[in-house]
Design brief:
This protein is an alpha+beta fold and 284 residues long. It contains 10 helices and 12 strands.
Length: 284
């Protein structure tokens, strides 16, 4: 006879509570709480209290919960691919992209620690440092940073990359960056995926560069208007431009063919005057 694993009442209640939250909220996110200090977590929870509910639990409980609600929320099981690190579930009714923007705005910079992954290329900018000449020059050189002496102080000769995006930051590099006052890490809730209406949105999709997005939107609008103008396609945005274009083209044809029309008489008279003046100059 196979013994059934004992499941505590506390664990059963936790699963039950999480299942209810999953059913009550249309948008469910998963965040990685690794490297997030307790004070920052408390602060972010306070700021997001009215919009977002954050609940931490174990990975296996998250797996059980998701498997229990997948019948009601098709496709949500794919979020388990992101059930890594120190996960927590996030429940909200906010738009996922607005949520990501809010979380990113609430992040703060922090020094790098040995073993962390560089979130982006870490650049050490050219310029003076507060360091007097000494071992720091060889330390910078070992890190691939060109340095020299200027005005009795160590100076970085050119912008240098201390670590590439995705690199593991070494203890020496982390120490050097801290001494240089460079804080490349971001402290905040790391939203890795969101479920909404049978779709899983990953971090790369949610992290929209708003400035670049608006620039692309304006460029697309400009291209669309140009295409519509070339195709003589009337829309609310092009009709006035097309009428003006048609007027200019018809006017040019009328002047070229000397067609007598109210709108063309001033131009035809001006043209005749110019031609008469030219003829007079040639015959003089």
């Amino acid at each position: 006879m196979v013994k059934k694993a004992h499941v505590s009442e506390e664990k059963k209640q936790t699963v039950k509570d999480f299942v209810k939250l999953c059913k009550d909220y249309p948008i469910i996110g998963i965040v990685n709480m690794e490297n997030l200090p307790a004070p920052q977590l408390t602060n972010m929870r306070a700021q997001l209290r009215e919009k977002v509910l954050i609940r931490m639990t174990k990975k296996n409980i998250i797996t059980i919960v998701i498997n229990q609600v997948k019948a009601d929320k098709p496709g949500i099981e794919k979020i388990l691919e992101f059930n890594k690190g120190m996960p927590a579930l996030l429940f909200t009714k906010e738009n996922p992209f607005s949520l990501m923007r809010t979380l990113n705005r609430n992040k703060s910079s922090a020094p790098a620690k040995a073993g962390q992954i560089a979130p982006k290329d870490i650049i050490v900018p050219a310029g003076p440092t507060p360091f007097a000449p000494g071992p720091i020059i060889s330390e910078l050189s070992m890190a691939g940073i060109k340095a020299g002496i200027e005005g009795g102080k160590v100076a970085i000769k050119q912008d240098s990359t201390a670590a590439r995006k995705g690199d593991v930051i070494s203890a020496k590099t982390a120490s050097l960056l801290t001494r240089l006052g460079i804080n490349p890490m971001e402290v905040g809730l790391d939203l890795v995926a969101v479920y909404e209406d049978e779709i899983i949105y990953g971090k790369d999709v949610l992290s929209v560069d708003e400035i670049q997005f608006m620039s692309n939107l304006k460029l697309a609008s400009s291209w669309a208007v140009n295409l519509a103008m070339k195709a003589d396609y009337p829309t609310i945005d092009t009709i006035k431009l097309l009428v003006a274009k048609a007027f200019r083209e018809s006017k040019a044809i009328g002047i070229a063919q000397c067609i007598m029309a109210d709108q063309l008489i001033p131009d035809l008279l001006a043209r005749a005057d110019r031609e008469a003046s030219m003829l007079k100059e040639k015959s003089a």
